[in-house]
Every structure is written in C-alpha cells, then in structure tokens.
Design a protein that fits this description.
single chain; about 290 residues; alpha+beta; five-stranded antiparallel β-sheet; four-stranded mixed β-sheet; 6 helices; about 25% strand; elongated
C-alpha cells in the first residue's frame, strides 16, 4: 500500500525541480545537478557563491583519493592549497606569513621564457631601504654578474709578469659613455663566462610572443620558424671584468705607491743624515 505514496512523493519532488527550471539526472554513472540561477551549498545553507563549501576539498585524478591532484583547506591562519608539485601554506609561527614551494620546474614572473629556476621580467626591490640582504654568511652567492662585469670572491691580486699593479690600474680608460673600455683592461682582470648566445635569447623572446596566441609548444614554434639557436641551445663565451679583481688591483696599486713613498722617504732621510754630518746648518738638520 505504500508504493503509490512513494511514487507520488517522487513525482512531487521532480515537479518542484522542473517548476524551478532545475533538475537532477544521472548520466553514465555520473550525478548531474542543475540549479538554474541558484547556488549549491555543501556543509552550509548560507551560500555566498555559486558553489559554497564548508570544509576541505580534494580533487583527485583516476580515483586516487589517497593522493589528490589538488586540495584546499582552511586553518586558523587562512586558506591553503596543495597540488602534486607545489603548495601554498600558512606559516603557523607567524600567522600572516605564507610560503609557496614548487618541488620541480622553474618560476617566471612577467615571463614564460624560463631559462633558470627564477626568471623575472622587471626590477627587483626590497620592501624598504637598507633593510635586507642578498644571501647570508652561511648561504653565499658565488658570482654576481651585472652590466658586462662580474663581482666574485677573490683573495688577492698578483700583477702579470713584468707589470706592476699601478701600471695595470693606470692603463684603464673609459669610453664616451663613462663605461670602462674593455680594450684597456689587462687580461689579469678579466674572466670568461659561457652563457646562451644573444641569438638564443632573441629567438626565446620571439617564441614567447608566438606561444601567447598559438597555444603551441616552444619546440614546435622553433621548428616551424627555423630557430636553430634555440633548438641547439647555442652558447657563447663572454668576456667580463671582475670587479673584485679590479678592487684588489687598486688596493695593491695603493700599497705599491705607499711602499715606493716609504722607500723614497727612507733614502731621503739617509741622505739628509749624511749631509748633516758634514754641515749642521742645513734647515732639515736637527740638533740634540
């Protein structure tokens, strides 16, 4: 006797969904929920968005629920998200501080042409003046390259055979732009660095522009346009001035000048002593 009532109840529910331009349907084992113009709440009846979930959310691939491809959660410090290769999590010790960790791959800011772990298209500034360090006493950068010059760690400078540091430093000239003329720099102050060629970087920029609209991979674009420098990872050797060596050479030159002055002064003192032995009337003679 209860079956007619159950049928009636199901029909009534379906009528409500149809009247509201909504429906629930199953297709191939999947559940389809259509709430036209409405909102869906999971764990809440106060929906502020189209889909509003109170609780953690995990998105899995191939029904692998134990290792979701992407998951979201909320703790006392805010929202967190995890994926298979990266995560963004609140720092429990400081509350508002957040960290983003990428297990593999490169990071680009303002660019998709990533030739190293971090590539930034633009300037990098500290949050305030004279407040932050680059590296630390235990985590030091080995070399710093800028404007055709290299700042590296050096322990001393020795002038090449037959030259003094004074001669090496005094021969350095600048061009009309106020930059050091590499032709006047002694080879003892130069270092050589292998990097991608200018043609490689030029083609990399072109590939980036094309990929924004074509949707093709960098390799496909390079092959279609004959970008051999990119495909062959073309490199070249750059000649750079070692700023550290230049500073050490200047310090060595100052030392050489001081030594020369002291030696000359010592010779002068000896001559004056000999002259005073012969005639004490010289103004530089002192009487005891």
């Amino acid at each position: 006797m209860r079956k007619p009532y159950l049928v009636f109840l199901v029909l009534a529910l379906l009528a409500v969904f149809v009247a509201a331009d909504s429906y629930i349907n199953t297709q191939g084992g999947n559940l389809v929920l259509n709430l036209a113009g409405g909102k869906l709440g999971v764990g809440t009846t106060t929906m502020g968005k189209t889909v509003d979930i109170t609780g953690d959310l995990a998105l899995a691939i191939a029904n692998n629920d134990s290792s979701p491809a992407l998951s979201f959660s909320v703790d006392s410090y805010g929202a967190n998200w995890w994926s298979s290769n990266s995560y963004n999590r609140s720092n429990a010790g400081s509350g508002w501080t957040r960290t983003i960790t990428i297990k593999s791959g490169n990071v680009g800011i303002g660019t998709t042409s990533l030739a190293s772990k971090l590539v930034v298209a633009g300037n990098i500034l500290p949050s305030s003046d004279n407040s932050s360090n680059l590296g630390s006493s235990s985590k030091r950068w080995r070399n710093l390259y800028y404007a055709g010059q290299l700042l590296t760690s050096s322990v001393g400078y020795s002038a090449p055979h037959g030259k003094s540091a004074v001669e090496v430093v005094s021969n350095i000239k600048t061009n009309s732009d106020g930059e050091i003329d590499h032709k006047t720099v002694d080879k003892s102050l130069l270092v050589y660095q292998t990097d991608y060629s200018p043609e490689y970087y030029q083609q990399l920029d072109e590939i980036e522009k094309i990929s924004e609209t074509s949707g093709k991979s960098p390799t496909e674009i390079a092959k279609e346009n004959g970008y051999k420098a990119y495909l062959n990872n073309e490199t070249t050797e750059y000649e750079l001035i070692s700023v550290s060596k230049l500073i050490l050479a200047q310090q060595q030159a100052i030392k050489e000048l001081n030594d020369a002055y002291n030696n000359q002064q010592e010779t002068i003192d000896k001559l004056q002593t000999e002259l005073c032995k012969k005639d004490e009337n010289y103004t530089f003679c002192t009487t005891t």
